[in-house]
């Protein structure tokens, strides 16, 4: 990418690097923070949760020229973005400045498995002095807030800064080049424009403990380390080479998404988990199980996939997978059904009977829970699953009330229930237990669900009711999951569902969550939390749904060269976006021009594009 023409252009896109713990470094392409979530060191103090902003910026000055850019009330100052000649991510974010004859390259990476960020500088043609002022806070990464009392202690080559509010979360600054000079001051009224537009706290002050300063010698290379753990300067060259080698060895059907896929895989205790999205999501059961095939199986990370399955299986309670693993909440009807699908996909690729044997009790617990009526959800007399409001993936609430409640029998929940029963039949047979009574139960109940599923057909709209008992004829994308399952619906119905979804919901970036012809349709995902939550599933486009759409397309139309080519073309707009950003966002506006929104990097968006692309390649 070449130089920027304006501050708006320089801050329009964002980068992020993770550390495998849930911690990260992230900012805009010019290094100006527009979110409270941005920062050079956001440490996961209890991986992958309890994320704490410690280092916001490093402000550089070369011979009197400021390289930083900040938004203050009524002004952008300084305007260092004007010196930027290039931004690259190869594989680390790298900003290149030119000031007169001097060229400054600033590269950011994190040490894997550590809350440690390294910022490497390479300066050529430099004359005069070079200084770096750290700008810091100590707070939850979720919201801008007033500065706590920060006190520093001198270290060899740097400083240790500790917060009165969070003394267990110190930050240590080190350098192998410039000398550190203590010079405490507070900088006031930084503005985070993205948070302002989202109706959240968007102004705060930052603390600077001093400056790293040196005289330039023409060619210089050094690094600044910011760490919540290290009390001395690491061997950053070795760490950089190791992390570069690891990232370059990653495999994915789409290389431009390989690093994004890697960033979601995090450590949780002794196990592994999947972060739902950056910057603000934890590890969610539904998201993790939908994402696992694309993030891990399609990228050949079989061992890691097994670790994630073990983590979530161990957190299951009474056959219910956690909705939010960090919060230990279990208010979900579909996470366990996606778990069965993920286990089946894992076994289809790995043939790992040992893990299947280990997970079989968890699979049986899902069957036991879903095959009976229970609190919140369960099987009715017709074999179909009923559920209370806001237990599906469309679970947004405004003022505590579900926006898209969907209480009753939901079309995708019962399609997944049917698929889970079929998967259980196959997995039981693989374990050599195909002749037991339980197998007969799977078969009998699957037939019953299939026979009852015809009730979802709405002849007036030529597609499925989104919910029955009580009927909801809203045209939503959930039915595309059913259309992609062989044997559940007659082919003529599946074809009609595909045509309706294509006509009403398909966009270049995924499927709308509600037909634009519906009077409740909201075409813009914007404004404060209540406004955004109201639009979340009322028209907003979700890229992850492109995966189920392509499943249905291939299942219904076949896998000819022409159909697979059609599917690849459907993915092109998302791939073009990924080529520029290295990841995919959570959502897009339902109405043109389909602006991106929500999390800047979402696990199931990346995962389902990876999975779908591998399927059609």
Summarize, please:
The chain is of the alpha+beta class and 617 residues long. It has a domain at 7-247: Beta-galactosidase, Chain A, domain 5.
How would you portray this structure in words?
- By secondary structure, this protein is of the alpha+beta class.
- It has a domain at 7-247: Distorted Sandwich (Beta-galactosidase, Chain A, domain 5), CATH 2.70.98.
- It has 16 helices and 35 strands.
- The longest helix has 21 residues, at 561-581.
- The protein is elongated, with a radius of gyration of 26 Å.
- The two termini are 29 Å apart.
Secondary-structure blueprint:
Elements: H1 7-10, E1 14-18, E2 24-28, E3 39-46, E4 49-62, E5 65-66, E6 69-72, E7 75-79, E8 84-89, E9 93-99, E10 102-110, E11 116-126, E12 129-140, E13 150-155, E14 158-163, E15 171-175, E16 179-191, H2 193-197, E17 203-215, E18 218-227, H3 236-248, H4 258-264, E19 265-268, E20 271-274, E21 277-278, H5 285-297, H6 302-315, H7 335-350, H8 353-370, E22 377-379, E23 385-387, E24 397-398, E25 401-402, E26 409-410, H9 411-430, H10 437-453, E27 457-458, E28 463-464, E29 467-468, H11 479-483, H12 491-504, E30 506-507, E31 510-512, H13 529-535, E32 541-542, H14 546-557, H15 561-581, E33 587-588, E34 596-597, E35 601-602, H16 603-616
Antiparallel strand pairs: 1-2, 2-3, 3-4, 4-5, 4-12, 6-7, 8-9, 9-10, 10-11, 11-18, 12-17, 13-14, 14-15, 15-18, 16-17, 19-20, 21-35, 22-23, 24-25, 26-29, 27-28, 30-31, 31-32, 33-34
Helix pairs in contact: 5-6, 5-7, 5-16, 6-7, 7-8, 7-9, 8-9, 9-10, 12-14, 14-15, 14-16, 15-16
């Amino acid at each position: 990418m070449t130089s920027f023409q304006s501050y708006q252009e320089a801050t329009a896109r964002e980068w992020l690097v993770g550390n495998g713990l849930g911690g990260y470094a992230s900012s805009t392409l010019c290094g100006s923070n527009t979110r409270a979530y941005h920062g050079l060191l956001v440490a996961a103090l209890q991986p992958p949760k309890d994320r704490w902003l410690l280092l916001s910026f490093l402000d550089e000055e070369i011979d009197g020229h400021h390289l930083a850019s900040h938004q203050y009330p009524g002004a952008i100052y300084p305007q260092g973005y004007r010196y930027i000649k290039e931004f690259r991510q190869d594989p680390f974010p790298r900003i290149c400045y030119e000031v007169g004859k001097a060229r400054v390259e600033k590269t950011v990476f994190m040490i894997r498995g550590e809350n440690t960020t390294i910022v490497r500088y390479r300066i050529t043609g430099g004359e005069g002095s070079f200084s770096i002022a750290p700008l810091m806070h100590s707070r939850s990464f979720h919201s801008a807030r007033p500065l706590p009392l920060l006190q520093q202690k001198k270290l060899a080559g740097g400083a240790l800064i500790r917060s009165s509010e969070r003394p267990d979360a110190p930050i240590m600054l080190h350098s192998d080049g410039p000398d550190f000079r203590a010079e405490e001051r507070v900088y006031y009224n930084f503005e985070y424009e993205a948070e302002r537009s989202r109706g959240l706290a968007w102004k705060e002050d930052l603390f600077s403990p001093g400056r790293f300063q040196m005289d330039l010698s023409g060619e210089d290379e050094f690094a600044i380390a910011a760490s919540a753990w290290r009390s001395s300067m690491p061997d950053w060259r070795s760490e950089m080479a190791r992390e570069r080698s690891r990232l370059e060895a990653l495999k994915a059907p789409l290389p431009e998404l390989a690093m994004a896929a890697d960033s979601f895989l995090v450590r949780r205790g002794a196990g592994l988990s999947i972060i739902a999205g950056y910057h603000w999501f934890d590890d969610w059961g539904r998201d993790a199980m939908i994402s696992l095939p694309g993030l891990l199986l399609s990228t050949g990370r079989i061992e890691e996939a097994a670790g994630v399955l073990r983590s979530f299986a161990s957190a299951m309670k009474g056959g219910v997978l956690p909705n939010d693993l960090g919060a230990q909440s279990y208010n979900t009807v579909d996470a366990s059904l996606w778990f069965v699908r993920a286990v089946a996909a894992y076994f289809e690729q790995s043939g790992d009977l040992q893990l299947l044997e280990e997970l079989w009790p968890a699979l049986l617990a899902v069957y036991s829970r879903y095959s009976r009526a229970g609190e919140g959800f369960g099987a009715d007399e017709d074999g179909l699953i009923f559920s209370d409001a806001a237990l599906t993936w469309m679970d947004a609430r405004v003022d505590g009330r579900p926006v898209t409640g969907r209480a009753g029998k939901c079309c995708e929940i019962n399609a997944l229930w049917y698929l889970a029963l079929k998967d259980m039949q196959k997995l039981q047979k693989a374990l050599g237990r195909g002749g037991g009574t339980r197998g007969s139960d799977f078969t009998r109940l699957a037939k019953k669900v299939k026979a009852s599923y015809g009730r979802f057909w709405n002849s007036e709209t030529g597609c499925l009711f989104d919910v029955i008992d009580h009927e909801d004829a809203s045209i939503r994308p959930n039915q595309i999951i059913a259309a992609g399952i062989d044997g559940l619906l007659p082919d003529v119905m599946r074809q009609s569902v595909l045509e309706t979804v294509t006509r009403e919901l398909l966009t270049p970036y995924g499927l709308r969550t509600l037909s634009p012809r519906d009077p409740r349709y909201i075409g813009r995902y914007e404004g404060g939390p209540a406004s955004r939550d109201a639009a979340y599933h009322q028209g907003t486009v979700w890229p992850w749904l492109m995966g189920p759409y392509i499943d249905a397309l291939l299942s219904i139309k076949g896998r000819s060269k022409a159909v697979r080519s059609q599917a690849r073309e459907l993915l092109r707009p998302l791939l073009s976006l990924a080529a520029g950003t290295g990841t995919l966002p959570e959502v897009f506006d339902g109405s043109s021009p389909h602006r991106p929104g929500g999390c800047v990097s979402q696990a199931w968006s990346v995962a389902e594009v990876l999975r779908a692309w591998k399927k059609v390649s």
